[in-house]
Task: structure prediction
Amino acid sequence: MRLNPFNPGSINVRRGGGGGGLPGGGAGLGCGGIVIVLVAALLFGVDPAQMLGTMDTVQPQSGQITQGQSQETDAEICDDSQYLTEACNALASLDQTWAPEFQQAGIAFRQPTLVPYQGGTRSGCGAAQASMGPFYCPADEGIYIDTSFYDTMNRQLGARGDFARYYVIAHEYGHHVQKLTGIAGQVQSAMQANPRQANALSVRLELQADCYAGVWAGKNRNLIEPGDFEEGMTAANAIGDDTLTQGQVSPDNFTHGTSQQRMQALRLGMESGDSSQCDRIIQG
Result:
């Protein structure tokens, strides 16, 4: 995907500091979180059913202070690596794509903050580790990522290419859209009111974020290159609950959706370029 370089000062970026702890202390996980945690579960013999049952349930913690904010400029942070440059370019494109949508809907828009870190850090949702994968923290509206995740996508999951990496950022941005529109809060309330449906509701929320990622791509289809669609489908297929758990977890315990569901959601967004189409996923 031929994204334009971001303009320095136009995006929110800060480097995450140290202080990361074990995943049990931390954030609700997004697209990447389930990938790394479940891969680790399968490699090291942890029961994936237990992990799926507890993920995405930790809420923003009051009193958390994000540590390690530096005085670096966004250009200095984004120039650190090819992965970060790509992430910053994607963030700028996502901001530019979603801001008019919010203006048209009469909803206040705020840019999220990209927070790259290495190894571990703290967020408004608690401690984070690289093994958790990328996630969105609604408390501080940050998209957290240790870019070594992309190497894992490439080597262990077979999800290669720049569009696969953009999909990760766009999915987490989708969770930001859900927060700003109030959808995330409504779904969380429904989960609390009906715990038996919590996993099913989590799946719908994740699939809508996939659809939103597709909408971003669909609205920028003039930048799409040959092979991008296939890269996106491969990535969505690789991180489906059924694929990651290799049949070891009951579908009733899925939290992000099957490979087929994730591919369908991404495809819906890409082909329509219409965020209202993604509402059908939440409505069921």
Notes: Strands lie at 12-13, 113-116, 120-123, 126-129, 135-137, 142-145. Residues 12-283 form one domain. The longest strand covers residues 113-116. Residues 82-105 form the longest helix (24 residues).
